[in-house]
Amino acid sequence: MTTSLTCDVAIVGAGPTGMVIAHLLGQAGVRTILIERNASTVTAPRAVSIDDEALRTMQAIALADEVIADVMLDYGSNYFTRHGVCFAKVEPITREYGYPRRNAFTQPKLEASLRAALVRYPHVTQLFEHECESVEEDESGVTLTLLHAGAQVQVRAAYGVGADGARSMMRRVIGANLVGSTYNQKWVIVDLASTKERFRQTRVMCDPARPFITLPGPGGIRRYEFMLHEGEDEEKAASPEFVRDLLAAAGPDADSPVVRRQVYAFHARKADKWHSARLFLAGDAAHLSPPFAGQGMNSGIRDAHNLAWKLAAVIKGVIGPRLLETYQAERSPHAWALIELAMNMGRIMMPTSNRQAALVQNAFRLASLVPPVQAYFAQMKYKPKPFYHDGFLAGDGGLALSGRMFPQPWLELRDRSKVRLDDVAGSGFALIAIGEDAQALAAATDVEAIGLGPLPRIAIMPQNINLDSATHAGVVEARDVDGTLSSITPRARNMLVLMRPDRYVAVAMKIEKAQTPGSFVEIAKRLVGMAQG
Ligand SMILES: Cc1cc2nc3c(=O)[nH]c(=O)nc-3n(C[C@H](O)[C@H](O)[C@H](O)COP(=O)(O)OP(=O)(O)OC[C@H]3O[C@@H](n4cnc5c(N)ncnc54)[C@H](O)[C@@H]3O)c2cc1C
């Protein structure tokens, strides 16, 4: 007997990517089925580094506090020569998006929290222990055939998402190929339940004889990653004796309890096609990164936030299906930029000879004497900005804001209470006016004319300007209390921004004194209309 189920979106894969999509769709009221072959979410250690952008997405699904309870916030990374001399430090202190930029977490705990919290949405059905065996697409939707305890389950959905990991079946269904290089490098990963290593940061030992990394984790755990040489036997490399010798040579953890030893081969690849008309790839199904930048899962969470609001907007008829064509255009170049970053970091970590190591490491030491260069590394300015150049965004007359993730300031409201921007912006689009005249500007903007329904209107004064005493009905009036927006405010005295549900800027515009918000509304309306067409 075959059971038949219907929904708007069927997601294959309950890893972090698939579950974040399920949360965002659940929040938007979209009927969703989440399909996972395993009985539970992962239990073995995997990703260990979660960034500020991903934590902002956790905030969007109202899980930031719960996730952060299991996170070690704000750690850095120090790079050492084979003689143990530190030649570069990455210790960012900026919090542009509301959270520290580098944070240690454990994937099993994150996944367990994501799964448990999905019960908030009665219209999101979880089908664990269901293997998706085949997917067919036609003009009006997709049909997935699942196998569960020897019986068939058929799911009919308007759209399907393949968040089904590195060996994605959905990738084959849409006819996509992985392009890029197979990173011909194997590492043995060793996870410890506790550590005697008291160094708080990540320690990267760039020793050509055997590069290794040791990373902190929440609750006093620690990970070691050792590069294997070509021809080294994988089985031997993962043996307890071999790993003990590596740990003994690396520091004080020779006798610390090992949770897992595993050899991994890393890849640097992405799919050449991310979607068909009704099927979409996200996360590891769409891109595979070496872990040196700690971005594999973080990129998947960016995909999730980008794709989920677009699917919800199309399913609800708010924006036309052409919107979905912007998914790959926005996400693919950015995901690849982070893979390239990981490969470049790998080159620094894995010098091929003592001579090459000395050249690179001395260059870093000299460069660190120049304060702007030192700041470039310490503050992680080398990390590609969350910035889309092409997609659901409109030109902004030189502000360089459209396509960029909007910063997240702490706002001081009229009653002196403090709140984060996203908590007043809500989960949809929001209008933000910035500048001395922001209150009047926000009040005068006919947001309904944009065609996205009624939107929150938020007026933000620069840090050193107090609110106008006249209140404006329907406008959240606030001051950028920490000056987080100071990096963008000098570009214009007043500006209007249409922020998307994924916190990226769709439209930004300088508003000169005599100008009314009318032209901003026209540009935004045209953008929404184009995606309709
Ligand atoms: C050693 C290591 C260290 C890493 N470190 C980091 C790090 O520090 N930071 C970081 O951001 N990333 C890191 N990563 C990468 C990160 O773990 C992955 O990028 C992340 O798990 C990808 O999430 P996903 O949801 O896209 O895919 P997955 O987590 O692989 O989930 C896919 C899910 O789909 C299910 N599935 C597949 N096919 C089917 C089917 N046919 N039917 C039903 N279910 C199916 C699978 O069972 C699985 O649960 C690391 C990875 C490794 C291996």
Quick overview of this protein structure:
The chain has 533 residues and is of the alpha+beta class. The strands form 5 sheets. Strands 1, 2, 8, 9, 10, 11 and 19 form a 7-stranded mixed beta sheet that branches. Strands 6-5-14-15-16-13-17 form a 7-stranded mixed beta sheet. Strands 22-21-25-24-23-26-27 form a 7-stranded mixed beta sheet.
Task: Please provide a written account of the structure.
This protein is α+β, with helices and mostly antiparallel strands and 533 residues long. The protein folds into 3 domains: 2-70 and 105-177 and 271-349, 3-Layer(bba) Sandwich (FAD/NAD(P)-binding domain), CATH 3.50.50.60; 73-102 and 186-265 and 351-384, D-Amino Acid Oxidase, Chain A, domain 2 (2-Layer Sandwich), CATH 3.30.9; 410-532, Glutaredoxin, CATH 3.40.30.10. Helices cover 28% and strands 27% of the residues. It is built from 14 helices and 27 strands. Strands 1, 2, 8, 9, 10, 11 and 19 form a 7-stranded mixed beta sheet that branches. It has a 7-stranded mixed beta sheet with strand order 6-5-14-15-16-13-17. The chain is globular and about 70 Å long. Bound molecules: flavin-adenine dinucleotide. Flavin-adenine dinucleotide (FAD) binds at residues 12-18, 35-38, 46-49, 107, 131-132, 163-165, 169, 189, 264, 283-284, 291, 294-298, 300.
